[in-house]
C-alpha cells in the first residue's frame, strides 16, 4: 500500500526553524507502507530557517509580515503532482501546519491558538479524493497493551477468536449491562478473549445479542462499553448481511456509512447520558476514513475482493420483502443486516475509531436464505476474512 507522508514527521529537518517533528507512530507505519515523503514548503524553495507562517484571512503570512500565499500554493501543487504520481490513497500530514494541517490549523496570531481549517496542501489532497489524516489519527489508532483493538464478530465469523493467543477470558454474563438471561444462538459464542493476534493486543467478542431477540439497544451495546472500559480505542465490527441487488453482491464488504432503520438508539436509553449536557453525537464520519483506507489497501495488496457500501440496520428478525429491498436500493444501501448500527452509535459516542466489515452471505430478500446457508457462506469466505482482519491489525 502506498502513502505520502510529511517529511518532517519522518525526521527530515525541513521545518521553518530547521528542525523536524518525527513521530514514532508514523515512523512505525511507514515501515509497513510504500512511503513518498513530501514537503510543500521546501518544494516552494522557501528558506530554512525563516519566521513561522500561519494562515489569516485566506492568505498565508510569515510572522515578519511577508505574504507567502503564492509560495505555499506553488509548493502544494508541486507536491500534489508527486502524490498523483505515487498513486497513494492515504496521506499522513503534520497536524496544525498552514500547509499540511488537517481540519485544525494555527489561527494567524502566532500564539499557538488554533482554528478550524485546512492547510493549503491538505485541502488540495482532499479535493483529489485522497484520505488525509494527521499524525494524531495514526497515534490514536495505534494499539498497545493499554489500548487493545476490540473485535466484535457476527454470525459465522466467530472462528477468528481461535487466532487469539489468550491472556484472559471473560464470560459475557460478567459484563456490566449484558443480560443475565441471554444465551448464544448458533454461530455465536459468549466468551470474550483478551490476548494477542500476531502480537497485536486485542479483545475479541465472538458473538453478540440482537434487538430482534427482545433485548434493548442499551443491552446490545454493553460489549462496546465494556471494550471502552478495557481501554480499547479502535473497534472492528464484523457482521453477516444480505447484499442489496444492484448495489452489492455476495462477498466481503467494507462499510462506508450506515442508516439506522431499527427505530432504536442506545443513547436514548443509556443512563449515563441522562447526566450530560449534550447527548448529540457527531456521526458524519461514523466509520473511520483512516481505518477504511488501510483495510482497502490491505485487501488490494492481498488480492481480496472487498466491495464498499452503506449498511442499513434493520430490526429483524424477518428478512426483507421485495418492496423493502427496492426501497433500500433507492436509498443507496449495499448491505442489510440486523446488528451493528446501534453498536457503531455507542462506539462513536465514546469517541472510538470504528471499522465496519461485513460478509454479504446472500442477496437481501432472497427466498432461499436461512441460518444454515448464512453459516455455509461464512465458511467459504473465512480464509479471506481472516487474512483481511490480520492484515489490518498488522498495519495499525
Ligand atoms: S508541516 Fe509540511 S510543509 Fe511544514 S515542514 Fe512538515 S512537511 Fe514541510
From TrEMBL:
EC number: 2.4.2.1
GO molecular function, one term: purine-nucleoside phosphorylase activity
Any GO BP annotation: nucleoside metabolic process
Recorded GO CC terms: cytoplasm
Reaction catalysis annotation: a purine 2'-deoxy-D-ribonucleoside + phosphate = a purine nucleobase + 2-deoxy-alpha-D-ribose 1-phosphate
Keywords, comma-separated and alphabetical: Glycosyltransferase, Transferase
InterPro entries with a match to the protein in the record: 2-thiour_desulf, Nucleoside_phosphorylase_d, Nucleoside_phosphorylase_sf, Purine_phosphorylase
Metabolic or biological pathway, per its Swiss-Prot or TrEMBL entry: Purine metabolism; purine nucleoside salvage
Function (record text): The purine nucleoside phosphorylases catalyze the phosphorolytic breakdown of the N-glycosidic bond in the beta-(deoxy)ribonucleoside molecules, with the formation of the corresponding free purine bases and pentose-1-phosphate. Cleaves guanosine, inosine, 2'-deoxyguanosine and 2'-deoxyinosine.
Stated family: Belongs to the PNP/MTAP phosphorylase family.
Protein name: purine-nucleoside phosphorylase
Source organism of the structure: Tractidigestivibacter scatoligenes
